[in-house]
Structure of Aquaporin-2-like isoform X2:
Amino acid sequence: MCKELASIAFYRAVFAELLITAIYVFFGLGSVLDWPETPSILQTAITFNLAAAVAVQIAWQVSGAHINPAVTVAFLLGSRVSLVRTVCYVVAQLAGGIVGAAVLYAVTPGNVRGNMGINKHYYTRCSMNPARSFGPAVITGDFLQQWIFWVGPLIGAVLASVLYNFVIYYDHKPFSQRLSILKGSYDGEELKAQEENAQKETLSLPSLVHRL
């Protein structure tokens, strides 16, 4: 963990998650507010997806562009990120959700902002992103049924991660490697170099003759 926390790239990635989540929430929530004409479901869907596409283009090379705490948890279960990175990403995403909702609240008239697009229905206008639901809830102080939009996405993320990483595309990582990834001490580049050196050392004579 200390090795990861000492990296500037790590903090750059955490900031990127905050920034892109704020952008996603700002534009996404803006598309569900009651402007002079109430936006259609199609308009809202297009806006959310375009906002997500822009966010991914901004940060996928820096942080992986998770945007969503549920996605980050899925990456953790699949041994793709460390525990400390998961915690920092989730905190950054929630902070980004609050920032995005706060900026939107500040720049929209009172008769337009309404309840800031807070999800209040079980099956309609739902959110698969806890950060998107948490941000406006904090700004308006309305946490009614907030747990639904945490439990649902997180359960879905866990099931999807297990299904993909252990059934559909089984990842043959040894336990020691998974543990080092969890701790944040895993060095993928170093391991790759070691494997390449070992492969060169064990190259058989027939293989050498064949290559010559």
Summary: Residues 7 and 158 are 28 Å apart (CA to CA).
